[in-house]
Amino acid sequence: MAKVEGDSREPLNEQAVANIYGSMRTDINQIYSKITELEMEVSEHSLVINAIKPLDPSRRCYRMIGGVLVERTIQEVMPAVNRNKEGLEEVIARLNEALEKKKKDLAAFEAKYKIRIKKGDGEMKDESGKKEGNAQGVLVGPAANE
Fold first, then answer.
1. What is the pTM of this model?
2. The domain spanning residue 62 has which CATH number?
3. Lowest CB count within 10 Å: 20, 109, 124, 145, which one?
4. Ranges of Basic and acidic residues compositional bias (predicted)?
């Protein structure tokens, strides 16, 4: 099993476990946001490629490079736009792999500390809400940025 954040030094109390859990959920949400942002950029690149593909390759076009608008031909710009799109797709694939790993780590952390998500109306995700001596779980509310 993969190392879960916090395994090297065990959390001392429920609050520390809740903080680590919240941090892990925040990381996952940030990865989701970045993937969404990059997918929108890939979509924009596709729109540009489809718009300029049927045009004359010697026709001039403009491209933003580092905040500077430069004049090029479609023939010069098309390979760069394709490369950028492919690079974005590779980054998205790597982020998806990282997301899956983080999800597995989170599931392992939930299982290890018997974490149950507390619903807004008082229900619990896991209905085994019994307290058994030292083996009680940690209740965590919904994430703040949802």
1. 0.73
2. 1.10.287.370
3. 145
4. 120-133
